[in-house]
Amino acid sequence: MARTWPWQRVAQSARHSLRTFRHSPLAEISGALGDLGTLLPLMAALALQGSVSLSSTLVFSGLFNVVTGIWFGLPLPVQPMKAIAAAAIAENASLRDTVAAGALVSSAVLLLAVTGLLRRLADIVPLPVVKGIQLGAGLSLVISAGSSSLLGGLSWIHHPSVLDNRLWALAAFVGLVLTQRMAPADTASPARTALFLPYALVVFLVGLVVAIVASTLPHLGAVDRHLPHFAVWHPHIRLPHWLDSHAWAMAIAQLPLTTLNSVVAVSALAEELFAPSLLSPLALSSSFTPTTSVTAFGCSVGAMNLVGCWFGAMPVCHGAGGLAVQYRFGARSGASVILLGTAKLLLGLFLGETLLDLLRAFPRSLLGVLVLASGLELASAGASLNTHPQGGQGGQEDGSSRDGSITQDGSFTSRQKRERWTVMLMTAGCLLAFKNDAVGFLAGLVCHGAYRLADKLEARNSSLRNRLRRPGHGEHTALLS
């Protein structure tokens, strides 16, 4: 097989993205905005308390969007490192501590990627555990949508304002439900483009108008706000606090989440959503095969924060939830994140910190529904658990081909389906209960290992029984012959 050089891959990716954008521009734009429900609240909260620089965050996250869109050809999200963001907000962490934590995580992930350890990890992790991580992460997003910082902090009419309350959230939710089948074309029904409604784009535009009105007419909001104005970005070098204990604590909490959800789970989801067999029926790609390897994703996460940390940019990574929701709202190529990245880059270069009031005024009711949609879409990835007998983890994700538990037509037995669901639910349940991806991951591995141990013990007992039943030694053999 001929080797594909980097510039050839970039050219193929660019052609694929351009062809996809020409085929369905509204879908790509809508998909690009799907993950704003995760990005905007965390970015605004961190910037308002001075834990990151808003202008640097927009510039570098926008640049990373463009680069990853061009290289991977996928709607790969660039989203906040959630564990670091949550800890920084709770502890009012300094900018130098926050960026140091992101850089430490990226250094570890990059080391795992270049040494091949990430690839080995992905090869040995059972598919039910990966699906459990996706399910748990999705349900975590659903729970966070109801938190006090989003939907849980709203009243029916006047809190925080008449432009942002439960009535707006209810309207957005009804719109989400009614547009479930108004998805862009897929392999099952290419004609669905005629029914497509860019839900995320509509919600974003409505939210933007509401934010502008709330900023212009402060009596409708909780505080006095100002509209953005022209302000050129002036980069400043910020030396991270490499040895600070708070930075290391945040990094340790984030590392399992980044490794499992932002690399391993993203790789598995990308393989499922963007397999060549799903692209070709749409006539969107004739020769392009997206890069979905964990090594490539790990190197991408590592490179992003090792660059942005010196300028006060928010720690970022990729995420299975962001990929799922951008796909749900129409994104099918790198064109979506290239457009988003270009917009963020321009905003950061020419508006920067003046956007803070507008971000603060964006309706939490609409952001909460976008986060809810993101969580539900990611959690639905678990539905395909028992549809791929050989799995996506190197063909050995549960030993099923060796223990004889697959039926002759290649499907799973009812017992094996039950066990795989149990492993997935064990992983997701422990992840949610302890709010820690590493705990869920280990619990899923233990559950999976217990089933495999039981298979080996059953096989050993069966072998012993067969030997005891050899001719001349059965209990029905005549005593006298």
From TrEMBL:
Transmembrane segments: 58-78, 98-118, 139-159, 165-183, 195-217, 291-313, 333-356
Region of interest: Disordered: 385-414
Claim: Thylakoid is one of the keywords in the record: no
The species this protein was found in: Sporothrix epigloea
Sorted UniProt keywords: Membrane, Transmembrane, Transmembrane helix
Presence of the UniProt keyword Membrane in the record: yes
Protein name, per record: Sulfate transporter
UniProt superkingdom: Eukaryota
